[in-house]
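Box 3.1. Reading complex inputs
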Amino acid sequence: MSEFENLSGNDKELQEFLMIEKQKAQVNAQIHEFNEICWEKCIGKPSTKLDHATETCLSNCVDRFIDTSLLITQRFAQMLQKRGGGDL
Amino acid sequence: MAAANMEKGELMSQVKQQIALANAQEMLSKMTEKCFKKCIQKPGKSLDTTEQKCISQCMDRFMDAWNLVSRTYGNRLQREQYRTMDTVELGN
């Protein structure tokens, strides 16, 4: 988006528009990623509709994936801190 | 002025269009990958009717799953936002 930033440098409205669109695109990319991961975890043979158990599995899968990501991020930061710096 | 404004509006709608296009392409490619994996166990000389039926069901379920995942993530984002707001308020 850096080329856009030059284009929109003095235009608040355009800047805001691009920022929002960028955020929306990031959320969308995230949904694609979650959907891919949770599809593999939860979907058996495709049938005429998503059954209740599959729906529960999908929505738990998204929330637990986010929990896992937050937990790992937090622990990872602690690991780095214990090593007394950013060096791996 | 009017020309500049039109250009901006055009740029905005082009950006939106490009994003929508990229999204549809992503959806299409993931859908193809996942439904091929689910429905074509042993590739034969052609797609038989069972495979075709499986593919169309798989596409519908893929959309269902996508929408559900999207809603769940949206709810989570909202919850996290409230939580952050609470933390900030407590901090003050």
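In summary: Helices of chain B lie at 2-39, 49-91.
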